[in-house]
Amino acid sequence: MIAPTKVYESVPTLSPDEAGDLVVKGIIERPSRIATRLGTFASVVNALAPKAYEVVMNTAFELFPDSAAAQGKQGSSEPHRPSDEQIAFASLMRGVHW
Fold it and tell me: How far is residue 35 from each of residues 22, 41, 50, 86, 98, measured CA to CA in Å?
């Protein structure tokens, strides 16, 4: 699902097995909520320091522009190479798909 966005080629995202494990856990255990550790941490930060959470999320929004596909363009002649800042930010936020 993230293949059209070239920036994800250098980003550590959840593997299909990890994502599948979360789905299986939801089906078998039926918890009231399913989230990665980072997702749970983000919820706590949002509850305790909503302004800090807003700054981090806004930074992510500004750092990762829409892909050509999201902009309604067919392909791109130049593949997007992620910047060092994008790679660092995504590595810190493993499991969050920008």
Answer: 8, 9, 19, 23, 16
Q: Residue 7 has which token pair?
A: 């920036």
Nearest 10 degrees: CA dihedral of 27, 29, 30, 32? -130
Rounded mean pLDDT, 22-48: 89
The whole-angstrom separation of Cα 27 and Cα 21 is 10
Residue 92's Cβ-side half-sphere holds a number of Cα atoms within 13 Å equal to 9
89 within 8 A of 60, measured Cβ to Cβ:
yes
Averaged pLDDT for residues 16-41:
89
pLDDT at 10: 63
Taking the model in full, what pTM does it have? 0.51
